[in-house]
Amino acid sequence: MNISNKTAPSEFILLAFSDLFKWHFFLSGLMIFTYFFTVMGNALIVFLVFSEPNLQTPMYFFLSNLSVLDICLNTTTIPQLIVNLLSGRSVIAYERCKIQLFFYVLFVGSEFLLLGVMAYDRYVAICNPLHYIMVMSQKLCSQLLSAIWLISSLNSTIHTVFTFSLLLCRGNKINYFYCDISPLLAISCGNISRSTNAILATSPIMGLAPAMCIVISYICIISRILKMNSSAAMRKAISTCASHFIVVLLYCGSCLFSYIRPTSSYSLNRDSIVALVNNVISPILNPLIYTLRNKDVKEALQNIMRKKLFSCKTKCFGSY
After folding, report:
1. Sign of the C-alpha dihedral, residues 87, 91, 97, 103?
2. d(CA 63, CA 66)
């Protein structure tokens, strides 16, 4: 059959975890729990940052935006996975696949860039504390965040247009549990050089630039910490960076593995596990990491609980 006569499929079959459909009730329950915990945990961080004056600093401004991105990233893929597991039919419509790819690439890119900005924020706070407020001004923070969204939106548009401009004629089965660039390229029969070149062209901005920012920032931070004479100051500096560093190792490592590598090394089982780390493990761990390891967030949570308890007591006993 002539390739040019073939049309795009109306829907795609998602093959990842298809051999586990006998566990679909258990897996769907697990996904519902993790999705609920992710949304509630990250929403709590956003609420605390915007309601507590002590948390309205550049560090927590970026943290709240990271939580918003975690919610958005999780919402892009997990609800569709839950629906597929409950229905027993792992499919996604063509247009929905296109939308999912756009927003997934958008949120992944935004989160990676944001982690780079957060590393720079920690560098300024520890290595140049006297000028921290002046350097990390509200205006600069807003500009950085706007730049992140602008760059990520442009990057996502490029990859979505290039990917879906290809002729997807090698069936409609995707070896993944959501629509991503690599599995879609695997079922295309046209020239994928434009898409792969786009990945290579955007990688320095979307991947290597924030990665280098993180590495250089932490080299300077570690150097500064080792020169500190006060053990208390050293512990405080380590405490402010520990949560971010753990998130960076978990999230950036899996993202670099997924995107900054040759498409020939694509593997269903290995990449599906990495994708689960990106979509499920990282977003659900972020609230735990930042609440359990961060003194300011724990104090803010305690203050909110005390205020609510006091308000409840006032309403309950005030009428007597």
Report:
1. positive
2. 5
Give the C-alpha separation, 211 to 114, whole Å. 11
Single-letter residue type at 166: L
Task: Give burial (CB, 10 Å; 0-12/13-18/19+) of 269.
Answer: exposed
Contact 211, 116 (CB under 8 A): yes
pLDDT tens digits, one per residue of 13-61: 887 766 666 777 788 888 898 899 889 989 988 988 888 888 888 988 9
Alpha-carbon distances, residue 77 vs 89, 226, 275, 292, 310 (angstroms): 16, 42, 10, 27, 40
Which range, 9-23, 180-194, 207-221, has the best average confidence (pLDDT)? 207-221
- Expressed in percent and rounded to 5, the helix, strand and coil fractions of the chain are 80, 5, 15
Radius of gyration of the chain (CA): 22
State yes or no: pLDDT of 238 exceeds 90. Answer: no
Higher pLDDT, 112 or 266: 112
Classify the phi-psi angles of 12: left when phi > 0, otherwise alpha if psi is within -120 to 50, otherwise beta.
Answer: beta
Q: Which of 251, 260, 262, 261 is nearest to 214 (CA)?
A: 251
The C-alpha atoms of residue 164 and residue 128 are separated, in whole angstroms, by 46
**Cβ(14)–Cβ(92) under 8 Å?**
yes
The residue type of 310 is: F
Of 56, 39, 214, which is closest to residue 121 (Cα–Cα)?
214
* Paired tokens of 232: 């208390």
Tell me the C-alpha distance between 294 and 64, whole Å.
14
What integer pLDDT is reported at residue 68 of this predicted model? 94
Residue 126: C-alpha distances to residues 129, 139, 247 (Å): 6, 20, 19
- Tell me what pLDDT residue 270 has: 58
